[in-house]
Amino acid sequence: MRITESYAVHAKMKPNHIAIIDEQESITYQDWYERVQTSAQWLNETAHHQKRVAFLVSNGASFLQIFAGAACAGWTAVPLDPRWSHEECVEKLLLSEADLVIIEDRYMRRFEKNKVDIPVLSLSEWKERMSPITYVQSNNQDTEEDPAFYMGFTSGSTGSPKAFMRRQQSWIESFRMTASEFGITHQDHVLILGTLLSSHFLYGAISTLYFGGTVTLLEKFVPEKGKTALERGDITAVYTVPTMTESLLQIDAFGDTPLLVISSGADWGISSKKQLVNNYPHITFFDFYGTSELSFVSYLSSTDFLQKPSSVGRPFSTIQVEVRRADQSICQPNETGRIYVKSPMSFSGYLHEEKPPQEWLTVYDMGWLDEDGYLYMSGRENGMIVYGGLNIFPEEIERVLNEQPEVKRSIVIGLPDPYWGEIPVAIIEKAQQTKTIRQAAKEKLAAYKVPKKWLVIDQMIETSGGKIARASMKKWAEDQLACKQS
């Protein structure tokens, strides 16, 4: 089964029901079904080798149409982030080995600097090619295999990007959890607050369409726009991350109609959750822990929060979680170790890595399970920084910094921030000034990856093996910033 197969049923049973509302148009299920089928038909008539289509498109129905059309055709969709620099876009595009790339017209300039040996279509050209196609219904879908339909990007231990693959069945398993645990149905009208480049928000939109509900998209998160959408009174559920929730709380955006809030992507502070529970009794929330590779792992409901405020919840019903010591033995309750997950929703592996994922997977998060089976997080073993729901890998930033002639060595660490969750802080060894280094970071990195604070040290603290002692450097940075604030 494919994630788009239910569209035919929705188009037949309720053709005039609204599927998608973006800032340009409203689309019925009949129209949506035909658009997705037409996109799939066009892809399958296109010359291809890998069956991969990359696209650099902002939030809107076109993004979802390309994504769903690829899934319907058995192709792999490769979304590219407009926030990436030109160099980052080209790097990931080449890594993906896509057969073609569709680029929103306003971003076409980015690909004039370097010639990419991949067919490039502007979004307007793609729309023109869609318009004359007459959809011909076909029952010859290849159902013998579960194709990889989604390629996203993460980072390895060196900071170099890695492409991870997801198969359709993994998302269908996740849809079942969304229905059984969160209670989302075809009757829901779901507001997607954030960018579809985030798998959390993309999943929220695609799962809602699978069920037959209505999706409302914002082109860009603006708190006032979110409030306006919620004040209409027809939104029944909203996908969000903690920084967005904080912004909405500040402007009293949640109204007085029943609402389901589904949050993920970063640590959501206890005080903020209390504010939501106490001030908006008509709201039910689910805060879930998951990753790109693992998908759903655990979830905390607003009811559970009252008893387990510090927990990231209990595992989903189809998930097994173990916390292990370094020797792989199982930790006792309340003992911290590395978190391992066994799941039917996990990813299918990294591109160009022949070994399939193991049955039990870890992303090197550390935590513990209590006596009742609730999971708690104590930190990220690999140092990943979660900035407002966005993952930042220190090694990627360090690689850019270390390329600069003014930099002898650098290290990037994450420090707690009351609004963003964590912020990246750069420490440079023996730098006379950081102005040119900062400018290089702005040119080479997406804006959210650029360090928010900069420190200079005469000599890095090292381990006995001569490597930078990350834990000691983090403590030094905390002390330095504390002194500056006092």
Tell me what the structure shows.
By secondary structure, this protein is α/β, with parallel strands linked by helices. It has 2 domains: 6-378, Rossmann fold (3-Layer(aba) Sandwich); 385-485, ANL, C-terminal domain (GMP Synthetase, Chain A, domain 3, 2-Layer Sandwich). The chain is built from 14 helices and 25 strands. The chain has helices spanning 6-13, 29-44, 61-73, 86-96, 123-130, 168-182, 199-211, 223-231, 242-250, 270-279, 302-307, 394-402, 435-444, 470-485; strands at 18-21, 26-28, 52-56, 76-79, 100-103, 120-122, 148-155, 161-167, 189-192, 214-217, 237-240, 259-263, 283-291, 295-301, 314-315, 320-324, 337-342, 349-350, 365-369, 375-380, 385-387, 390-392, 410-417, 421-429, 453-457. The chain has a 9-stranded mixed sheet, sandwiched between helices. 42% of the residues are buried.
Q: CATH superfamily assignment of the largest domain?
A: ANL, N-terminal domain
Largest sheet: 9 strands, mixed
Q: How do the strands of the widest beta sheet line up side by side?
A: 2-1-10-9-11-12-13-14-15
**Rg, Å, rounded:** 23 Å
Q: According to CATH, what is the class of the largest domain?
A: Alpha Beta
Strand content: 25-35%
* Mean pLDDT value: 90
Helical/strand content category? alpha/beta
Q: Estimate the helix proportion, in percent.
A: 25-40%
CATH overall fold name of the largest domain: Rossmann fold
Q: Which ranges are low-confidence, i.e. pLDDT below 50, for 5 or more consecutive residues? A: none
DSSP helical segment count: 14
Task: For the record, give the distance between the C-alpha atoms at the N and C termini, rounded to a whole number.
Answer: 60 Å
CATH architecture of the largest domain: 3-Layer(aba) Sandwich
> What is the number of independent domains?
2
Number of strands: 25
Query: In one word, what is the shape?
Result: globular
Domain AMP-binding enzyme C-terminal: 396-467
Protein name: Acyl-CoA synthetase
InterPro entries: AMP-bd_C, AMP-bd_C_sf, AMP-binding_CS, AMP-dep_synth/lig_dom, ANL_N_sf
Domain AMP-dependent synthetase/ligase: 10-351
